[in-house]
Structure formats: structure tokens, C-alpha cells
Design a protein that fits this description.
Layout (H helix, E strand, L loop, with lengths): L7 H12 L6 H36 L4 H19 L1
């Protein structure tokens, strides 16, 4: 593995994590950090893909404005309440 220069605050954090017994060595600390970054990037990519899919659906099927959805939901709730009364 390549040598890594960490800023003092990160080096201190890594040293403390190793001293606490949570990690065997700096390589374990860095691997955990890279795995976390990998999961974050995967989540970001999934979010972007969902936005692109939503945009594609809106272009294909149209879309509703928030105030339209709000008015429709209020109407449905009102009808449900009146039906129970």
C-alpha cells in the first residue's frame, strides 16, 4: 500500500481509533474510511439515478405541481372524514 500523509487532526483520530482497539492498524482505518466513502458514492449515484428516472417519467407522463397534489389530498381526506360522519 502507498504511504499516506494525513493532516494532524486525522492522524490523531486514526491513532486514537487504533489505540481503542477498534482497528488493527492504519490500513484498517483507511479501508473503513474508503468503504464508507464507497457507500456514500453509491447512495449518491442511486439518488441521481432516481432523479433522472423521475424526470424521464415526468416528461413521458406529465407532472403535478405541489399545490395541486396538496389540494387533491385535502379533498380526499375531507371526503373520507365526511363519509365517517
Amino acid at each position: 500500500m502507498n504511504l499516506v500523509d494525513l493532516p494532524p487532526e486525522l492522524e490523531s483520530f486514526a491513532t486514537d481509533a487504533i489505540a481503542s482497539g477498534r482497528y488493527r492498524d492504519l490500513s484498517d482505518v483507511l479501508a473503513a474510511g474508503v468503504r464508507l466513502l464507497q457507500r456514500q458514492e453509491e447512495a449518491r449515484a442511486a439518488f441521481v439515478a432516481s432523479l433522472e428516472e423521475a424526470e424521464s417519467e415526468s416528461e413521458q407522463f406529465g407532472f403535478c405541481m405541489l399545490d395541486e397534489v396538496d389540494a387533491e389530498m385535502r379533498s380526499i381526506i375531507g371526503k373520507g372524514r365526511r363519509a365517517k360522519a
